[in-house]
Amino acid sequence: MRRLGPPSEIGRLAAPLGRLLDAAWQRMHWWVATMAILYAVSGITMVKPDEEAVILRWGRLVGDTPAVQQHGPGLLFALPRPVDRVIRVQTKHVWELSVSTLATADRWRDGTTLDPLTQGYALTGDHNIVHVDMVARYHVREPAEWAFYGPNADDVLRLEVTAAMVRSLGEMTVDHVLADGRKRLIATATRRAQAGLDAAHSGLELSSLELTHLAPPFALANDFDAVQSAFIGAETKKKEAQAFAQSAIPKAQADADAKLQAARAGVAADLARANGDADAFRALDREYRANPVVVRERLYRDGVDHAIGAAAVDWVPPPVGDHYQGFRISLPLVEAGAVAQTKDQSKSTRGRDAQRSTDTAPTPPMAGVGGED
Q1: 241 found inside a domain
Q2: In a domain, 296, yes or no
C-alpha cells in the first residue's frame, strides 16, 4: 500500500487543475477520442485522375526510385502532419508562362533611345539589337523533382528560357532571324532550355516556345522593314525565275529531243534509201554481167518510157547500120490550141535529130510513133 505523506506545496497548487482535468475527461472523453481518430486519418488523400502525388516525411522524399516515389490516382494513405506532407501535382495539365525578360515595356511607343537598365534586349550574331517576347508552355514530367521547387519552378523555367534564347540569337544574323530563321531559332532555344531544365532537376518539360514579339528597336523599325521588303522582293523574283526555268527548260529539252528524233529518222530513211539504191545497182550490175543484151534493151525501154511519158510508143529495134534513115517521132496533140507550137517543135526536133544522126556514131535504139516515112 502506498504511503501517503504530507502534501507538498506544488501538489496543493496543482490539485485544482487536476480536479478540473479529471472532470473534463469524465464529461468529454468521447470528444477527445473523436479528435484523435480524425487526426489519425487526416493523412488519407484523394489523388485525382490528372494528378500524381509524392510524400515528404519530415521533409524527406519517401521512396528510393521514381516508381515508389510517385503515386497515381486513387486513395493515398500517409501519416498526418507534421510527420508526412502529401504534394499533388497536375502532370497532364499544360501551363503557360510569359517570358518578357528580353522585351521592352514601351515597344509600342515612339521610343528613340534604349535604356539597358529598364529595357530587355538581346544581341544577334552580327551585333544587332532585337527585342523578344515569348510564351513558354510546359508540364510537369517528374513530380518528385518538381516537389522541391513548387511555385519557384516558374523562375527556373524563365531563367533557362532566357539564357537559351540569348545564346541562340548570338549565333544567328539579324536578317536570318527576322526572315526565315525563326523556326530554327525556336527549335534551338527549346532544345537548350530543356537541357538546362534537366540539368537543374526541375522536373519540367517544355512543350512549346512561341515568339509573340521579335523585332528590332522602334527607332530602327522602318529601316529593318525596308530591308525586309527588299529581301522578300528578291526572293519573289528568284522564285519567279525558278518557275520560268522549270517551265522553259523542259520545253526546250522536248523540242530538242523532237528535232533530234526527226533528224535521226531522216538519217535512217536516207541511209535505207541509199542502201536500197546501192543494192539495186549491184543487182543490176550482176544481171548485166550475166546477160548484157537483155539488160541493155530493158534499160533502153525504161529510159524511153520515162522520157516520152504518155505518148503512144511503137518500139523500133536498134538500127542495123550506123544510123536511121528517115526515122521520125510523132507525139499526139492533146489540145487543139497547141498544134502550131507542136509542129514547130517537131520540125526543130527532127532537124536536130537528123543532124545528130548524121554527125554522131551509132546511137542506142530510140522509140517513136508512125515508123519510117
Answers
A1: yes
A2: no
Would the pLDDT of 322 be above 80? Answer: no
How many structural domains is the chain composed of?
Answer: 4
Residue 265 has pLDDT above 80, yes or no: yes
First-last CA distance in the chain: 194
Cα separation values, 262 from 190, 271, 273, 275, Å:
61, 14, 16, 20
pLDDT of residue 311: 59
Do 201 and 235 fall within a single domain?
no
* pLDDT at 133 > cutoff 50: yes
DSSP assignment string, 5-72: -PPPHHHHHHHHHHHHHHHHHHHHHHHHHHHHHHHHHTT-EEEPTTEEEEEEETTEES-SSHHHH-B-
Q: Is 358 helix (H, G, I), strand (E, B) or coil?
A: helix
Q: Average pLDDT for residues 337-362, to the nearest whole number?
A: 45
DSSP 8-class letter at 72: -
Work out the percent of the chain whose per-residue pLDDT is above 90: 20
CB atoms within 10 A of CB 329: 19
Cα 316 off chain centre by: 87
Structural domain boundaries, residue 22: 18-89
Residues 319 and 355 in one domain: yes
